[in-house]
Amino acid sequence: VPVRFRERVFDLVRRVPPGRVVSYGAVAAMIGRPRAARAVGTALARLDDDGVPWWRVVDRHGRVPARPAAGAVALQRALLEGEGVRFDGDGCIDWKSFGWEGEEATG
DNA sequence: TCGGTGACGCGTT
DNA sequence: GAACGCGCCACCG
Fold it and tell me: Per DSSP, which regions of A1-107 are E strands?
């Protein structure tokens, strides 16, 4: 069935546990569209579901992406810090410490 | 259906 | 390492 791309994105992001982050490209790859990173951003931009932790999605460098809404960047960062996510001097998040691989890897 | 847009990502310089 | 240009895909009018 033609499940909307958006729903795939939202459903996946909903599975990202607190204190963990994932990149747009990773989300796209996980839903079978490795080249649709930009579309993931579009989907989240049109997000209308309050149950989606959109703030756990960052760019490939582990940084909070710039957005039209000025205060959104600070908000996202604040939300992540509230979950225990730490940022380095460049505002980057360490993937090895906070990156989500899709499923709790055994090792 | 066609054309423009945007919360991205990669290669090149 | 940073900046610029291009491609990619789904959403919208």
Answer: 22-23, 57-58
Regarding pTM above 0.85, the answer is yes
Q: Which nucleotide is nearest to A76 (CA to C1')?
A: B7
**pLDDT at residue A107, rounded to an integer:** 55
- Is residue A98 packed enough to be buried (19+ CB in 10 Å), middle (13-18) or exposed (0-12)? buried
DSSP E strand stretches across A7-107: 22-23, 57-58
- Cα torsion for A14, A18, A23, A27, to the nearest 10°? -20
Nucleotides of B under 7 A from a protein CB: 5-10
Spacing of A65 CA from B11 C1' in Å = 21
